[in-house]
Amino acid sequence: MPKERKLGPKGTPFFATPTTFEKAYPDIEEIEITVESMDKKITTKEPEVSYHWRLAGRELSDLPAYVSCGNPLCNEGGFGIQKIVDSVYPERLTEGEGAITCRGHEHMGRWQQRACLRGASYKIRAQYKSSQTST
Ligand SMILES: [Zn+2]
To answer: In this structure, is residue 8 part of a structural domain?
Structure first.
């Protein structure tokens, strides 16, 4: 019998449980995130949607868990901002960048659907409360 592997369901919103950004990331003092979506199918140079936040202190709770991928056909999609924060937070990195993909899907017909192909590149800069006091 193969061991049952428990993997969390993909695309579950991190903030679905009643929590706040401050509780999820208590060490973050200030954060700056840039997200620019790109359509992989068309490979245009221009980002279809772009987001930029620079938040500190109480403003951090304004950060959305998900933002729209910009695909009008997309269902239940979006780019997970939490993923971006998680890319730097565990190791308290002050900068990071990478790529994320949309978690949504497109309806192709009555019974068919396919994954949304939108992807986005991101950059993040973070300042941590603990890093200010430690030397
Ligand atoms: Zn999408």
So the answer is: no
Q: Is residue 2 part of a domain?
A: no
- Whether 12 is in a domain gets the answer no
d(CA 89, CA 38): 25
Using the structure block, give the residue that is written with the tokens 């991190």: 14
- Domain carrying residue 41: 26-130
Task: Tell me, in angstroms, the distance from the centre of ligand 1 to residue 13's CA.
Answer: 15
Q: How far is the CA of 28 from the centre of ligand 1 (A)?
A: 28
In this predicted model, what pLDDT tens digit does every residue of 101-130 receive, in sequence order?
998 999 888 888 899 988 999 999 999 997
Q: How confident is the model at residue 134 (pLDDT cuts 50, 70, 90)?
A: very low
Number of domains the chain contains: 1
At residue 70, the 3 state secondary structure works out as: coil
- CA–centroid distance, 135 to ligand 1, in Å, is 43
Going by the DSSP 8-state scheme, the letter that residue 46 receives in this structure is: S
